[in-house]
Amino acid sequence: MADPKGFLNHGREVAKSRPVDVRLKDWNEVYVPGSLLPIISKQASRCMDCGIPFCHNGCPLGNLIPEWNDYAYREDWSAASERLHATNNFPEFTGRLCPAPCESACVLGINQPAVTIKNVEVSIIDKAWDAGTVAPQAPERLSGKTVAVIGSGPAGLAAAQQLTRAGHTVAVYERADRIGGLLRYGIPEFKMEKRHINRRIEQMRAEGTRFRTGIEIGRDLKATDLKKRYDAIVIAAGATTARDLPVPGRELKGIYQAMEYLPLANKVQEGDFVTPPISAEDKHVVVIGGGDTGADCVGTAHRQGAASVTQLEIMPRPNDERNAVSQPWPTFPMLYKVTSAHEEGGERVYSVSTTHFEGDEDGNVQWLHLTEVEFVEGKLTPKPGTERKIPAQLVTLAMGFTGTDRENGLVDQFGLDLDERGNIARDADFQTNVPGVFVAGDAGRGQSLIVWAIAEGRSAARGCDRFLTGASELPAPIRPTDRSLMV
Question: What is the pTM assigned to this prediction?
Fold first, then answer.
């Protein structure tokens, strides 16, 4: 145990953010560089090294949290990094992007602020990169087997790295022009600078993983042809079919899916555009959807100089604190969350539903009409007399995703079965109904968190490795049927 009295002697401290007026002028990460290291040893000491570490159960990766907390407290960064990488291929991704269900399951969190697990994690990996100790781990020998991974998000990259290190020759196919999936084009630069992805890709290249960009399986290359080329395939194509809003006026110009809007802002940071083809500059922006993707749209609109930003959510405002009856510890509670984007301004409106859009004579959206809603007999129902309209010259739809892409032909060309939720069905080894074809991440689980994606990639890699060789020593942290600790 790091410090038996650490949780008594030290309160919770988190990473410091740069002032709003400063960070809105650039696209760099919002946190003050280096602000964590002076406090992280004390924060790690708050870990109680519980007899039953429920943080392990909160995290699908099974991260060895008390162990690397102890090493961080003692400032043994090399050992801390080794423990961190034992269960997680990309802790710099999760340490920045994960909503930290491990902290919700922290035993200290029963009656005190939880250990800053996420901040300790990112401090360890950043220290390891700075020290140059994150080295490629090329396999000692090759198996002679080949694997294609479809998709380069966190699930695809995790599966590819595990299979490469097991000795297989792995090629990752990505339909975009750069590797990273939604990590690259869906996550704004201010949440995670893309240099973190780039150096992991270079590590993977040094290990032997090959990357093929600009190739969409199903369109540019038939799935059946791909299967002939490789001994096994891992599908990690994500759940990219966005939920739409079929209301009058949806066809007006200026209404976009979030994943039509956000990638263009990221492409500006990559140097592809000087200004984005879709910009919030001087416009009244409305974001429909109260989740993390909606918050990403809010922060992006602020940086593009929006005249105003309003975020709409159909559900009621969540509680500030955990309800011990409806959301008991150690489940992951739905709480009111103020992200860095929300700190920067804008209005958040809860319990409202869009009824229709109104445009000008040129077909551009100008107004959004909404009504308040309430639960009546368990069903969301409009409240009479609450209709109103708000200015909306740019609208982004951030209402989640309904499943993997069916239009490109990948599912049908492979002949894959789907489950009752429209996801690609798989067995206990993450194998589909087609022998040698596996599925990992949102394509099989449905829309989920980055930690679940990486855990799925690692688990599918084990199933694929066993299919290729008859046995596998790769770890499999989860089963396809596992779910978050939710009520």
Answer: 0.97
pLDDT tens digit string along 185-212? 999 999 999 999 999 999 999 999 999 9
User: What's the average model confidence in pLDDT over 11-22?
Assistant: 96
Q: What is the CATH number of domain 146-240+402-469?
A: 3.50.50.60
pLDDT digits 0-9 by tens, 282-314: 999 999 999 999 999 999 999 999 999 999 999
Distance CA 437, CA 414 (A): 9
> What is the residue-wise DSSP string for 139-186?
-SS--S-EEEEE--SHHHHHHHHHHHHTT-EEEEEESSSSTTTHHHHT
In CATH, the architecture of 245-399 is: 3-Layer(bba) Sandwich (3.50)
Amino acid at 230: Y
List all residues 6 or more positions away from 169 whose beta carbon is below 8 Å from its beta carbon. Answer: 142, 143, 145, 146, 147, 208, 210
In CATH, the number for domain 5-131 is: 1.10.1060.10
Residues in the chain: 487
Name the nearest CA neighbour of 428 among 461, 463, 454.
463
